[in-house]
Amino acid sequence: MLDLSAVIATVTLDEPRVLLVKASDPSSEASARPRLPFGPFNPSSDRTMEEGLRRWVENQTGLNLGFVEQLYTFGDRFRDPVAIAGGARSITVGYVALVRQSSARRPAGSDWFDWYRLFPWEDWRNGRPSLIEDVIQPEILLWAASAEDAKSKRLRRERAEIAFGFNDVGWDADRVLERYELLYEAGLVAETVTDGRIKTGEGQTEAHPRTGLPLHQDHRRILATALGRLRGKIRYRPVIFEVMPPAFTLFQLQRAVEGLAGAPLHKQNFRRLVAAEGLVEPTGRVSAETGGRPAELFRFRRDVVRERPAPGVRMPRGRRTK
Amino acid sequence: MLDLSAVIATVTLDEPRVLLVKASDPSSEASARPRLPFGPFNPSSDRTMEEGLRRWVENQTGLNLGFVEQLYTFGDRFRDPVAIAGGARSITVGYVALVRQSSARRPAGSDWFDWYRLFPWEDWRNGRPSLIEDVIQPEILLWAASAEDAKSKRLRRERAEIAFGFNDVGWDADRVLERYELLYEAGLVAETVTDGRIKTGEGQTEAHPRTGLPLHQDHRRILATALGRLRGKIRYRPVIFEVMPPAFTLFQLQRAVEGLAGAPLHKQNFRRLVAAEGLVEPTGRVSAETGGRPAELFRFRRDVVRERPAPGVRMPRGRRTK
DNA sequence: TCCCCATATGCTCAAAATAAGTATAAGTGT
DNA sequence: ACACTTATACTTATTTTGAGCATATGGGGA
Question: Nearest to residue B173, comparing CAs of B264, B250, B73, B243?
Answer without folding.
Answer: B264
